[in-house]
Amino acid sequence: MRYIKDLTEGARVGDIYLIKSKSSAVTKNGKNYLNLTLQDKTGTIDGKVWDPNSAGIDEFEEKEYVEIVGDVSSFNGALQVSVKRARIAHEGEYDSKDYLPVSAKDVDSMYKELLDIIDRTGNEYLKRLLQSFFIDDEKFIARFKFSSAAKMVHHAFVGGLLEHTLSVTKNCIFFAAQYPRLDRDLLVTAAICHDIGKTVELSPFPDNDYTDEGNLLGHIVMGTQMVDEKIRSIDGFPSVLATELKHCILAHHGEYEFGSPKKPALIEAVALNFADDIDAKMETFSELLDKSQNPNDWQGFNRLLDSNIRGTRLG
Amino acid sequence: MRYIKDLTEGARVGDIYLIKSKSSAVTKNGKNYLNLTLQDKTGTIDGKVWDPNSAGIDEFEEKEYVEIVGDVSSFNGALQVSVKRARIAHEGEYDSKDYLPVSAKDVDSMYKELLDIIDRTGNEYLKRLLQSFFIDDEKFIARFKFSSAAKMVHHAFVGGLLEHTLSVTKNCIFFAAQYPRLDRDLLVTAAICHDIGKTVELSPFPDNDYTDEGNLLGHIVMGTQMVDEKIRSIDGFPSVLATELKHCILAHHGEYEFGSPKKPALIEAVALNFADDIDAKMETFSELLDKSQNPNDWQGFNRLLDSNIRGTRLG
Amino acid sequence: MRYIKDLTEGARVGDIYLIKSKSSAVTKNGKNYLNLTLQDKTGTIDGKVWDPNSAGIDEFEEKEYVEIVGDVSSFNGALQVSVKRARIAHEGEYDSKDYLPVSAKDVDSMYKELLDIIDRTGNEYLKRLLQSFFIDDEKFIARFKFSSAAKMVHHAFVGGLLEHTLSVTKNCIFFAAQYPRLDRDLLVTAAICHDIGKTVELSPFPDNDYTDEGNLLGHIVMGTQMVDEKIRSIDGFPSVLATELKHCILAHHGEYEFGSPKKPALIEAVALNFADDIDAKMETFSELLDKSQNPNDWQGFNRLLDSNIRGTRLG
Amino acid sequence: MRYIKDLTEGARVGDIYLIKSKSSAVTKNGKNYLNLTLQDKTGTIDGKVWDPNSAGIDEFEEKEYVEIVGDVSSFNGALQVSVKRARIAHEGEYDSKDYLPVSAKDVDSMYKELLDIIDRTGNEYLKRLLQSFFIDDEKFIARFKFSSAAKMVHHAFVGGLLEHTLSVTKNCIFFAAQYPRLDRDLLVTAAICHDIGKTVELSPFPDNDYTDEGNLLGHIVMGTQMVDEKIRSIDGFPSVLATELKHCILAHHGEYEFGSPKKPALIEAVALNFADDIDAKMETFSELLDKSQNPNDWQGFNRLLDSNIRGTRLG
Amino acid sequence: MRYIKDLTEGARVGDIYLIKSKSSAVTKNGKNYLNLTLQDKTGTIDGKVWDPNSAGIDEFEEKEYVEIVGDVSSFNGALQVSVKRARIAHEGEYDSKDYLPVSAKDVDSMYKELLDIIDRTGNEYLKRLLQSFFIDDEKFIARFKFSSAAKMVHHAFVGGLLEHTLSVTKNCIFFAAQYPRLDRDLLVTAAICHDIGKTVELSPFPDNDYTDEGNLLGHIVMGTQMVDEKIRSIDGFPSVLATELKHCILAHHGEYEFGSPKKPALIEAVALNFADDIDAKMETFSELLDKSQNPNDWQGFNRLLDSNIRGTRLG
Amino acid sequence: MRYIKDLTEGARVGDIYLIKSKSSAVTKNGKNYLNLTLQDKTGTIDGKVWDPNSAGIDEFEEKEYVEIVGDVSSFNGALQVSVKRARIAHEGEYDSKDYLPVSAKDVDSMYKELLDIIDRTGNEYLKRLLQSFFIDDEKFIARFKFSSAAKMVHHAFVGGLLEHTLSVTKNCIFFAAQYPRLDRDLLVTAAICHDIGKTVELSPFPDNDYTDEGNLLGHIVMGTQMVDEKIRSIDGFPSVLATELKHCILAHHGEYEFGSPKKPALIEAVALNFADDIDAKMETFSELLDKSQNPNDWQGFNRLLDSNIRGTRLG
Questions:
Q1: Using CA atoms, how far apart are residues B42 and B102, in angstroms rounded to an integer?
Q2: What's the rounded mean pLDDT across residues A121-131?
Q3: How far apart are CA C134 and CA F12, in angstroms?
Q4: Distance from C-alpha of E308 to C-alpha of E303, rounded to nearest angstrom
Q5: Are chains C and F touching, using the cut-off of 8 Å on CB pairs and a minimum of 3 such pairs?
Q6: Of B230, C197, F213, F267, which has the highest C-beta tally within 10 A?
Q7: Chain A residues whose beta carbon lies within 8 Å of the beta carbon of residue E24
Q8: Chain centre to alpha carbon of residue D307
Q9: Cβ–Cβ of A26/C76 closer than 8 Å?
Q10: Whole-prediction pTM value?
Q11: Is A28 on the interface with C (CB under 8 A)?
């Protein structure tokens, strides 16, 4: 497959792309045409279907994988594809991984690392709870590994939820070693579960957008409820422990204004809030610099970091 | 029974009272004694047990009903009871209603009014949901009718939760008639369910204080979960309707800072927030004036109303 | 008259329209032309005067009613009128109601309903005050019935002030029945008068924009002063009642940050603030959904409601 | 007269004092007595009437001037007067200035200074407006000269309103000279009128407390209305000038949260807000240091200044 | 020199201009060209170099002074210069004052006025400190006189820092005369030094933008450190006085949210904050009206003044 | 030495204590006596000197070490010492460590750990800077090891600054390993230096209170300046590195409202803010539970944690 980032003026295109967006438009002469955005994992390129009703142009919709034949030209300094033929591709003809942003880390290795941590949980009830999600529930596992951790700000790629969860969990393991008042098992379990609601708050890729339920209920409450359901299936799960774990999840955004209905009242809830927040901020900062042409220059104001930022120069 | 508000200096006491508080103290001469607060539904009075180890003084604890024999005297302008004998009363010897603040309205009449409203719910799924709480679940019904709507601010009496719920529901019925965009059934169901989590957030009277679970999870999330559980037992309950109902409950405090993890996104959620808020403010204002010696004078700053207030004089 | 919403490509236009906006522009070839926005009550359409100095084109200004002759064409997917002739229309040739947004409800019926409410006011002083505005003061009545309740957010149409006032008043009548601490006469009078300052804060249609005085003083203070003046003309109006009524008007926005110089300190002021606020929010929400193509989808963030919103689906 | 600050243990008292507060109490032995606070301009002292019903003790109320005969003793390190005789004093027997906090500056000199400034106002309409208050309206003049500028924070003494007004006006005269965009006459007139509403917001000394009208309407709105009334009596007063002047008064607190219903929109309104604010802060700071035993040490947190403060040492 | 504001369509240009911005672009036909913005002190004009590689077009960069030969034409209603020749000018060929926004006041007169104030400082240590900056340190003096007081909001011109500093200092001299608690020498010294950090926070004209150090440390901390260094070179400078002076500089923004790490705790710090703030607001307001075509109309919302504003009409 | 926590009623005291507070008082009979608070590292006890002028009672002041002879009695349920003799102790007679709260960890071990970290710093300039403080500057080292990290909230004991600094530094070392964008040397150096200003913001024990300079300038600015001075003495220290390090220190409180004049703009500044904040919160939470009688019950609202808190029960 020839990736979008490698296309040049004058090239001929003949590959399957994901249709990121599609809209109708009218030329000054009153002729209808289609504006497309073609996507693969290396980026996007504009497409124009100047003759939408011609023979070779099948009907297709946004989010579909479509085989495109056409020519690359340059307009106002940007490349675009004049689409001659368009045909919906069948499953099997393409590998969706080629079309979606993905974690730079290997999903299976990360998942194995998470299972190792689960295996080292001392409290039997918490361990069984984690296993009921991450070992027994295949549908959940598939969705968890495929999810992002956010629509846009940070970890907005396939595997992002797993990568973020693992990183927050490692932060918590470190904190539990540093601060003896912290209960390691409760904290680690809360860390692993803190964002599981995101598997239902966001729709799967290539969409990766808020679901209706996500908009109305939010991942904090949905995740808490998912934990609650699994706990009911575990005989003898201590009720205070269940309440404390759910509290940690409810309070993990730390402030009412960030959507937590309770402020952290347990020391593990305080620690989880920090572990989550620093991972989000470190990743956001790093992604911004990674994408920047001049990471050591001022990057402008960033809303999450609430500051103008720049990469460190050291001298 | 002789009520506390009718006791006068020199009287002899011989009745059962609720022990609101109890603490040990030492006189200047180094003698131990007990400070009590005796309570019935008309008020409280201080009690002193000058000789805690004497024959007639049984062991008892806070929150117990105790038969007190003693004399009323005046100290620093306030009445107090010198306790001569104290004996724990058995269930049956007293009626707890005589000892607790109660709604001025009849609980059973209010409950009947609520059932009539439930009966008029058009949507079958919502109706069945309401019935599953208010007709089928006897333990829930008992607790709901006995609960207050708050620890202190307003409706802090037996029957208070029912009174507040009924009043909010009536506001919603009126709004649904005024504003045609509102779905009456959804709004009324949300109104009836909005505070059911308070039955577990607050402990039963005479305690009426935050439970551990109440502190850690809060009535908004607990109530949403209670609704969710009942819905699961109703075959075919539409999932979008379930989500919309749960959203209304989650969002009923209207603002993140008041503990709602979501802002109202449906018009019914907006209306419910108003219906709840105005009832809380009207009741708070009314209770303050009812309790005041000079309701038409300035009452000082009230935190909920965020203002110095006074009763209206009209002229 | 042929309404703007019914115009189609290729049609010939020959009707009077309100000139909503007018500006000069220059073509790439350096030729002057005019950009117009033509308005009637069904919407707006762009107009182009390609030859402003030709014989048939009279001089005219924004906000004038102008007879337009021209042809409808399509450009970039939108319709526009190429104006051949333009002539200022005389009063009498057009009915301004055809050119302005109007309440869906009948203004005279609403006005009659308001008069009935005034007639049922028990307190003689308050009744006389209301009559001095709504029965005796013809200039005020005319302006009141013609005003909107806002420049943009909600009720921004002819009759909007009356519609909003009546709705707020009905909310107050209901609250007065629900909450016995409320004085019905004071509350209803305050409701009817709460926004009368808008008759001078906003200029009459078709302008409907903030006046200079409106910008510098605001409808809250101007309305309070209008009430104060009428009260002075009523012998024996009790001074405390006058102060309480003015307080309700001053405090009806509920918060300093919304322009009330006093927080509600009387229970009627609290109730009026709610009655006003819920009407504004219900109407804003309803107007948004009414105008939306897909009211049951997410509509995006709304500033007044401070949330992303969607219409209720129920299933 | 022997001032309170000069009383010592063992002295005999025989002078007229203002009764700042009076309350009944009961001794441990059940005897009624009266607690008094006696006041003159140098301070206060506790008084006890151990035998309220004895022959020499007349009936009297708070805020009355009473001739007190009694002995000064010391209790718990503080002085108090055992009152033997008490008799209400007649007007003429005392000079209220001896009993009230007063400006350190001469009220008549300050008033003359204000009249000179009024005399130098160039705009005839504004000058006539100022004269209608400060030359023609004797009742207003008497109240203005006797008022404080606040209940407690700063200038809380007889003459305080005049002193503050004059100081703010001088600040404005300076600003008008510094910043040519400022209209001197408008700014100076607004400065002189900005707090005239305080003559009705606060009751006269010795009370100096918020009036009912003051609580419900506030000096900002009341002062604006007083200006409005005088303007109506001046033929030909330009209406835009009237609106601009009223705007300056409405906006002089600068922020909604401080009770201004409008933010400063004219440059004179901005300047007046500064002139007022700095005078309040300078006076508050100065009064705090003047009253302090150790002005050069840290004085603790002050709410108006929103900081812990200390006097400047310079070295 | 022919100023930009005097250029008209069809004119031939042949003067030196400052290149404010320069960027490459591509025509629809795929031809490279350059977009320029040419600047002198009267304004800016667009320039196009249609043939960047032709003989007469030298290489040049942004911020350079370049002799431009070309023709003025009109495009879409705006003028632009078609550049035929471009040559970098040598120092001496142009006077940078012709190309930069400058204070309307004479820099040397203002500087002399400042020196006179310094000369009248009574405290010997403070006087020596001021002299060490404004008499002894030539590099500092040059930079101080050339600096603006801000990147954009107000005093954003050559000499702006001096003009603002002098005006703030005069405000302080007036306040010191009005409020006897203020120490004139400390206050005046703090006023003169309060913004000296701006000489390093902003780069010199024509750039006048935040430096890297300015972004990371800010003029408040940098200015405090500059004062600290000079003080170390003055034998016997009292340490408390040094701390008090540095406090005034640190606290001169008045609020944490405006970047002051300490709230004003000394009365001089309070006064300096006002003197600075009112000068910034008066200048911002005046500059807005000066630049406006219709200063007496509403100018729209201004962020610093936090209000819609208009010029005063007076009637 | 017999520690205060071991004293019982009836005991005879004969040891040296630190006089935490001392004040004069008068008995009801008019006799002068002294109220003392005696302190050692285990707690405090009240003391009474009933006869301050008797032979055995020397003059002494607060903060002095005094040998006390007396008897322990009980009053109102609390113990107190009736002081018979009091004599100021000479240096050498007591060990101040017995009288002050101290870190539970060994100061010298922690210091060694810090030196090891410094030794592993790769960047030569940063290493030399750290050595110039922690190896070369003996006065600084002594003060640093003896300081607390706060007046009250957390780490308010001897060695507290070192303990907090070491813990923050370890957090930073972990973060640097987790997040590759972080420069370990810069982050670790900033961590070690972030609170060095506290050595001058707080006075030495037993006082441990804000110094005058601390109140006026604060540890953030003072610490930045201390770093700046050392850097000047290091030849060739890169200026950008110096600025970046100082930025990290200035921004380490993360928000303007917490006294940072700059928001974190470098990723190391973001990380340091988290490392510091979590250590403060973990220690505050732990100290509260450590001191509590019932750590697993609700502890009430804590201002720093902005929540009611309780210890975790787990089941």
A1: 10
A2: 98
A3: 89
A4: 9
A5: no
A6: F267
A7: none
A8: 24
A9: yes
A10: 0.91
A11: yes
